[in-house]
Amino acid sequence: MGVPGIFLFFVVLFLISIATSCCCSSLNSLTPYWNSSFKEQITGLANDPNTVNWMKRIRREIHENPELAFEEFATSAVIRRELDRLGVGYRWPVAGTGVVAAIGSGSKPFVALRADMDALPIQTPGMRAKVQEKKVMILKYPKDQEMVEWEHKSKVDGKMHACGHDAHVAMLLGAAKILQEMRDELQGTVVLIFQPAEERGVGAKAMIQEGVLENVESIFGIHTVHGYPTGTVAARPGEFLAGCGGFRAKVSGKGGHAAIPQHSIDPILAVSTSVISLQNIVSREIDPLDSQVVSVAMIHGGTAFNIIPDAATIAGTFRAFSKKSFYALRERIEEVIKAQAAVHRCSAEIDFSGMEQPTIPPTVNDKWIYEHVRQVSMQIVGKENTKTSPSYMGSEDFAFYLDKVPGSFLLVGMRNERIGSVYPPHSPYFNIDEDVLPVGAAIHAAFAHSYLSNSTKNSHCP
């Protein structure tokens, strides 16, 4: 081959590489692939008055009958009833009360959408004693109940949907309705996960163990928040919500009379110095720019003022944003408590696995899926209403899904001062602006539809 031939050969290779690069970069663009007619169809279906009123009825029915973790039998029945009416197939029971549905071709690619469905035990002042002029007076308050006065308030004392999970279920069913209308256009399969027991931090793990992520490439979830007005959404790439763990330490010594402490081994002293030393982890051992928390919130020990007990117990929580920091913090807590116990001639047993406070890893959004969600959100609520969120010390068991597959978690604002939707989660005054329902349904459906379209197109890129 002569010089002109070699030159021509390399020119052809160069042009092919450019064409391939342009093709793949275009198809792998972070902008979701869908045409404007799909956007109009999704938003139109989500905001159809019949669909909106249907979602409201579902949310209110669930709200009136709150059920705690792994007790969501009636809630599950409502979900299955509505899926049956929509003609959507599902698997049940999953992890006891969970429901897993599927819409689309039944073949790859698979993308998952998740909603949690459990309520909270709610506490309002019930009765307390007050000392007034040396007389004990009993002050009576309402029973533990929802304090929002409206016709669909909780009918179950001591239980309430005070974290928005009733709305999450209604929005995911709204997305199911939209996607079922568009099922012939879906280029893959959408898996709908209705999950129990998020509030206990164990529901997602239980669902994963029963195979709900089988074949799933990506997952998306949302949570309503009072920190942003209705019609606004927010998230961030990477570390988003803190990992959360609990610990309970029993420090054992030797009991005896407080008047002769030399014959005892005092566990009260050991737990006291442990509490102080634990505070030094964050203040003196951690980079100030790497936010972490260690809080001791319980101390139990002794039954009499003049008796040194055989043992004392402390319990608390720890949080961090990166997995490395989270697990290093857990290890350091154990080291400090055991060392302080040893200094005071005691022994320590530390439990990190109690059901009261299970270990939940940090919620870390995949940067590519986050960007896809951001682009979808801008299509639905507008660029000006799509915000970058700060990180939060709160935790979410959605993190367990993100440990297995790439995905993203989105906060959906529902603050509305006019109707009193201003209170934080877990408050007996918690209230939701139901105008958020079509927003969440549309973003769910738009993410799933556009993800499948992108995934299918990218699979054809050489």
Question: What features would you describe in this structure?
Answer:
The chain has 462 residues and is of the alpha+beta class. Helix content is 38%, strand content 26%. The protein is built from eleven helices and 20 strands. The strands form six sheets. Strands 1-2-8-3-9-20-10-19 form an eight-stranded mixed sheet, sandwiched between helices. A four-stranded antiparallel sheet has the order 14-16-12-17, covered by helices on one side. A two-stranded antiparallel ribbon has the order 4-7. The chain is elongated, with a radius of gyration of 27 Å. The two termini are 29 Å apart.
- The class by helix and strand makeup works out as alpha+beta
As laid out across the biggest beta sheet, the strand order is 1-2-8-3-9-20-10-19
Q: Which overall shape is indicated by the principal axes computed on the Cα atoms?
A: elongated
Give the proportion of residues in helices: 25-40%
- Give a count of the beta strands, DSSP E runs of length 2 or more: 20
Q: Give the mean pLDDT.
A: 89
Main beta-sheet annotation: 8 strands, mixed
SS strand fraction: 25-35%
First-last Cα distance: 29 Å
Alpha plus pi helix count: 11
Unreliable stretches (pLDDT < 50, length at least 5) are: 7-29, 126-142
Radius of gyration (CA) equals: 27 Å
Features:
462 residues; alpha+beta; eight-stranded mixed β-sheet; four-stranded antiparallel β-sheet; elongated
Short description:
This protein has 462 residues and is of the alpha+beta class. The protein is built from 11 helices and 20 strands.
